[in-house]
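Section 5.1 Outputs to date
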Amino acid sequence: MKQYNISNRHKEQIYHIVLKLPKKTDLQKERFIRYYGLKPTQFKRETLSAISREQHCNPNAVRNSVISIRIAMIRVSDEEFSILENIYRKYHK
């Protein structure tokens, strides 16, 4: 899988969309944000293992949280989906 260096502005936009996701726990959102390094001012990516060690769980639990949020992002509002789509297109030319 190819890695992309997404701008901090775009990471912040994704961060705010994730925070607004309904029916997802704060823990799931936090794990997703940490895994992808979306937290404003830090933007530090963390591994599944590092997150799981800190939260005293197994890496699969963190992975399931990340996947759950990724799936939920398909069901965002049209406006938010448009933001995500524009970010995607910018980095996948």
